[in-house]
Design the sequence.
């Protein structure tokens, strides 16, 4: 993790305060989430922690958690935080392929899910279905000491650009710092009511300021089972929601559906992030919803940028914000790692008090994903304005951003390469007016076979247990792949060439 001199500095500056995430729960009778008060959530999490501990879950153990937006999710994560066991945050959309990998790669002791059909993928991990949780109960007085604040708190998933997803190790200290500062930047108070629309395990919903930011402020979380206007608008009206966070396509959909709304007058702030928000959508937020727009450009690896609530329109509408911390170091460099002047587009590198110094157990990958002096190579192409605000201009990583859902091209390619009729494949992003990007698989058929059609590709990948959002939207068949200069192209270059051609 961080070198000692950095850690010492971050402590001295008061960023790392020596608390653990479990300490976010107080004994207040104010509602925390759903119908659970802070006190009840705390008591229930302690009993669950004791029960899990009794059945063998220990400090440092990994537990893959895959739950939808329900109150049990909170009981589980706070129980694990109390024990010092590490939740591995899977998304509800993940299927056997991803779950199997998370369980085996982390040697997880348990897998907590609502999907009984994924049990077989868990391997040696004990499967705990959501309905079984209520019966796991123990005496909190039997609990062993909890984790240290500098210990890992959980493993978050990276959007990924390689064949297998990388895991992001976050500590109690570093995560709490980003949570506290985010809550302040977003003006959260005990009167805040936050609607969790995106999956609660995503970094945006969890900590930017997310559900944990709300708990820090003593506010209330309301859970949306789905993001569609028919579900969400009545919830906003009934619960007097003050702030929520969405990806651009959901913002777009809400704006187009506002005639269905009864009363959105409580909604003070609409946060939009996860993918680039088009100016044309940004400009409609205040006139149509009556809410302040806040752009959020963040990453599970750490760095989060926000437009501030009192920023002028020019900043809020046309930038992706500025970093949380005065000690977020932002470098914008050319292809040879030389800094470029403000206003010039370059690669964004960053390091700071809540940005990881390496992925979990991925030494080889870390050598290229981080610089020698510990900067994370985000893979994003940005421009810095003279006022310090960042504008996202594109991406250098082999990733598709499908409306905020991240897809590693290589991961999908590796699955398709196992198909008997596929000789070669390159998966690229194609522009889409609604999602920003969709996925196209360019396929070369194996000699003597016919390349699989879209429907076959989709069925094949589903059967391999790949999450639905990673399944290509289009398939294009080519006789051969274009080759450059020396003849042999890496798939990386090929993806770039096809991406350029697809636009
Ligand atoms: C958030 O986190 P991740 O880890 O799912 O994805 C991070 C990547 C960034 O590197 C960037 O490529 C893209 O998502 N991204 C944006 C963006 N916000 C994220 N690209 C353009 N404009 C934006 N506003 O997506 C995430 C984590 C915390 C808060 C918000 C988003």
Sequence:
């Amino acid at each position: 993790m961080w070198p000692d001199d950095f850690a010492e500095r971050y402590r001295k500056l008061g960023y790392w305060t020596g608390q653990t995430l479990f300490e976010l729960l107080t004994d207040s009778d104010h509602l925390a989430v759903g119908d659970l008060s802070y006190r009840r959530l705390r008591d229930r999490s302690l009993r669950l922690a004791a029960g899990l501990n009794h059945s063998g879950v220990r400090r440092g153990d990994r537990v893959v958690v895959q739950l939808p937006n329900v109150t049990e999710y909170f009981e589980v994560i706070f129980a694990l935080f109390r024990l010092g066991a590490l939740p591995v945050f899977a998304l509800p959309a993940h299927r056997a392929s991803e779950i199997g990998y998370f369980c085996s790669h982390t040697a997880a002791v348990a897998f907590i899910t609502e999907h009984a059909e994924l049990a077989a993928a868990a391997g040696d991990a004990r499967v705990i279905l959501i309905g079984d949780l209520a019966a796991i109960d123990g005496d909190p007085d039997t609990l062993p000491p909890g984790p240290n604040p500098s210990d890992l708190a959980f493993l978050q998933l990276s959007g990924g650009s390689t064949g297998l997803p990388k895991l992001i190790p976050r500590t109690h200290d570093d995560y709490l710092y980003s949570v506290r500062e985010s809550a302040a930047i977003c003006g959260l108070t005990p009167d805040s009511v936050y609607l969790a629309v995106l999956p609660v395990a995503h970094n945006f919903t969890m900590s930017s300021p997310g559900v944990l930011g709300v708990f820090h402020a003593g506010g209330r979380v309301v859970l949306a089972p789905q993001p569609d206007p028919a579900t969400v608008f009545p919830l906003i009206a009934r619960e007097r929601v003050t702030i929520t966070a969405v990806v651009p396509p959901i913002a777009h959909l809400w704006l187009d559906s506002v005639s269905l709304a009864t009363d959105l007058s409580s909604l003070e702030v609409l946060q939009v992030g996860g993918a680039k928000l088009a100016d044309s959508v940004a400009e409609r937020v205040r006139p149509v919803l009556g809410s302040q727009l806040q752009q959020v450009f963040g990453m599970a690896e750490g760095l989060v940028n926000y437009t501030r609530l009192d920023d002028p329109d020019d900043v809020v509408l046309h930038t992706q914000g500025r970093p949380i911390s005065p000690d977020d170091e932002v470098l914008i460099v050319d292809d040879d790692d030389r800094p470029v002047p403000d206003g010039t587009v370059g690669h964004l590198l960053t390091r700071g008090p809540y940005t990881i110094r390496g992925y979990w157990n991925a030494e080889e990958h870390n050598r290229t994903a981080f610089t020698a002096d510990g900067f994370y190579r985000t893979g994003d192409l940005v421009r810095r304005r003279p006022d310090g605000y960042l504008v996202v201009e594109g991406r250098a990583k082999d990733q598709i951003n499908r409306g905020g859902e991240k897809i590693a091209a290589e991961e999908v390619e590796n699955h398709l390469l196992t198909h008997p009729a596929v000789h070669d494949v390159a998966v690229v992003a194609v522009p889409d007016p609604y999602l920003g990007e969709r996925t196209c698989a360019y396929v070369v058929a194996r000699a003597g076979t016919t390349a699989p059609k879209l429907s076959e590709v989709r069925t094949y990948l589903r059967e391999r247990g790949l999450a639905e959002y990673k399944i290509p939207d289009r398939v294009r068949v080519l006789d051969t792949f274009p080759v450059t200069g020396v003849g042999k192209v890496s798939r990386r270059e090929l993806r770039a060439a096809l991406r350029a051609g697809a636009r």
